[in-house]
């Protein structure tokens, strides 16, 4: 058996069935896997991936292996691993996996080191932790890396900061910025899976509640849309004037977090920044207020300040911590402030991850073929890859669209024809 560190290898059979269930809604990735198996575009390459270890990720790993890559996988979040999936990838797919749901900080980074033991040629990251470790603690491995990909907004922000400072040592494609990723994964995936996580953790009625969404990027838009659809009165908090204006035009109340803290029943952060729900907010919240995070890292809620303000805390339900404040109120943190859609639920539905992971697979192939032409910076997903994935997804859904006529194409390329 390949090297691994998973919770229980005997869970492999259950994981295999769930991986197959997810695959039914991942037709685009399936078609890529079939082509990869014939062409082997990743043959001879070692790939270290730091991703949420879910059923959808398992299908991506199997596609990359079919393409000839030697794949190593670790978790990109301590609470996002599905232990049966990790076991199945080891036993049934022969992929080294280092991931345990609920692993502590030390184990999390040890697992990243395990994934880097592959001496990768390509990195695949979700949040840029693997890239960060590679650039700080394992710099001796950088000479063997030809390129990488990044899955999420937070990771892209970190990588662009590295590139701007001139410390990024190899080219990376920002998969998050593909239209077929953020317009669907961030909006529809995060929207649905965040509500799923909140409901599984709390079993609370959304209808009639005051639901506060911090951040009106594509993830925030998706969460606000779903909360509104379930009957909540939605409040959006923002720092960007354009997004604040957009949220207002979309029919939501917009106000500062300090004001929203007084009236909200349920709070969700989706900004990618620190201290979005801060010390003063906890004092102002209603007795019984619930708050959680849907951004990548557990820094959006000031948990350390919350602990200092509390006279006691206890786990009252799975993934629900009750904090008793000194002012007599009790407020509730979900999922330890980590990604609630993966902490207490199963992450995005496979149909939407189909497109995100199709981008990952095709960008890995693109990097393998084109890395010599690329500089040490963050690149957008090539337009052709984005368009091809959209076409494949439409075909899988049985949806047809129009095709431009020669006259229409000529008109769009011309400037002479006016009114």
UniProtKB/TrEMBL annotation:
Key words of the record: Cytoplasm, Hydrolase, NAD, One-carbon metabolism
Subcellular location: Cytoplasm
Top-level EC class as recorded in UniProt: hydrolase
Any single Pfam family the record assigns to this protein: AdoHcyase
Domain annotation S-adenosyl-L-homocysteine hydrolase NAD binding: ranges: 186-347
One term of GO molecular function: adenosylhomocysteinase activity
UniProt binding sites for NAD(+): 152-154, 186, 215-222, 238, 294-296, 341, 348
CDD domains linked: SAHH
Residue sites binding substrate per the record: 54, 126, 151, 181, 185
Family annotation (InterPro entries): Adenosylhomocyst_ase-like_sf, Adenosylhomocysteinase-like, Ado_hCys_hydrolase_NAD-bd, NAD(P)-bd_dom_sf, S-Ado-L-homoCys_hydrolase_CS
Catalysed transformations (reactions): S-adenosyl-L-homocysteine + H2O = L-homocysteine + adenosine
Coiled coil spans: none
NCBIfam families assigned to the protein according to its UniProt record, in alphabetical order: ahcY, PRK05476.2-3
HAMAP family: AdoHcyase
UniProt-recorded name of the protein: Adenosylhomocysteinase
Organism name: Candidatus Sulfobium mesophilum
Phylogenetic classification of the source organism: Bacteria, Pseudomonadati, Nitrospirota, Nitrospiria, Nitrospirales
The gene coding this protein: ahcY
């Amino acid at each position: 058996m390949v090297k691994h560190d998973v919770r229980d290898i005997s869970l492999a059979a259950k994981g295999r069935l769930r991986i197959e269930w997810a695959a039914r809604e991942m037709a685009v990735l399936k078609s890529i896997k079939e082509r990869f198996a014939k062409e082997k575009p990743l043959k001879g390459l070692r790939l270290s991936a730091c991703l949420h270890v879910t059923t959808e990720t398992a299908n991506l790993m199997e596609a990359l292996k079919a393409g000839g890559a030697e794949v190593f996988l670790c978790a990109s979040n301590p609470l996002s691993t599905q232990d049966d999936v990790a076991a199945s990838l080891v036993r049934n797919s022969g992929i080294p996996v280092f991931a345990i749901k609920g692993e502590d900080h030390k184990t999390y980074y040890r697992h990243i080191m395990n994934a880097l033991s592959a001496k990768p040629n390509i990195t695949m990251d979700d949040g840029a932790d693997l890239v960060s470790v590679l650039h700080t603690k394992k710099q001796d491995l950088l000479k063997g890396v030809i390129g990488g990909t990044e899955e999420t907004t937070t990771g892209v922000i970190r990588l662009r900061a590295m590139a701007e400072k001139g410390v990024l040592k190899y080219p990376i494609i920002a998969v998050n910025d593909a239209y077929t990723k953020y317009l669907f994964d961030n909006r529809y995936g995060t929207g649905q899976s965040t509500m799923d996580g909140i409901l599984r953790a709390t079993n609370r009625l959304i209808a009639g509640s005051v639901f506060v969404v911090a951040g009106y990027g594509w993830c925030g838009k998706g969460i606000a849309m779903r909360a509104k659809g379930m009957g909540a009165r939605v409040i959006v908090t923002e720092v960007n004037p354009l997004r604040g204006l957009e949220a207002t035009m979309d029919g939501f109340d917009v106000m500062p977090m300090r004001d929203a803290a007084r009236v909200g029943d349920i709070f969700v952060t989706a900004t990618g920044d620190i201290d979005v729900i801060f010390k003063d907010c906890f004092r102002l919240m209603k007795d019984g207020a619930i708050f959680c995070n849907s951004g990548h890292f557990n820094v959006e809620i000031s948990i350390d300040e919350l602990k200092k303000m509390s006279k006691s805390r206890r786990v009252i339900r799975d993934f629900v911590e009750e904090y008793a404040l000194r002012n007599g109120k009790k407020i509730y943190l979900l999922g330890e402030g980590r990604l609630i859609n993966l902490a207490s639920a199963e992450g995005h539905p496979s149909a939407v991850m189909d497109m995100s992971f199709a981008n990952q697979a095709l960008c890995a192939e693109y990097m393998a073929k084109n890395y010599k032409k690329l500089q040490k910076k963050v690149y957008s997903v090539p337009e052709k890859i984005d368009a091809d994935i959209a076409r494949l997804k439409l075909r899988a859904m049985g949806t047809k669209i129009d095709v431009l006529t020669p006259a229409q194409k000529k008109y769009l390329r011309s400037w002479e024809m006016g009114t």
